[in-house]
Design a protein that fits this description.
This protein is an all-alpha fold. 33% of the residues are buried. Helix 1 packs parallel to helix 3. The mean pLDDT is 96.
Length: 122
Amino acid sequence: MNPAFLVATGGALGALGRWAIGSLGAGMAFPWATLGVNLIGSLLLGVLAAAFSSGSISKDAILLLGVGFMGAFTTMSTYSIEAVEMGESGAFGALAAYVAVTALGCPLFALAGWRGMSLLMP
């Protein structure tokens, strides 16, 4: 299948998913929605990466789900702006927590997804 079509389709669906979750967290003082999509996306991308590395899923699946969906579902740019806004508003405690949980949590969630999937595969 056409790689650009797979990435674009996955990206459209991932962006809609992020928008829907972001709408649930609109108006909250802490950016729970962004943190949530980044942690969930890291976990799921870990699962996909492990499945791909073992040959359990195709390159097309990675393009659709990994590059497209997860690429649009997760968001480094929104995280960065939210962190800047916290700093600008003087919410340094929340900023420190947000940065720490994102910086440590996302790789740990990706590792958990990778290891969890590795345990399930032969």
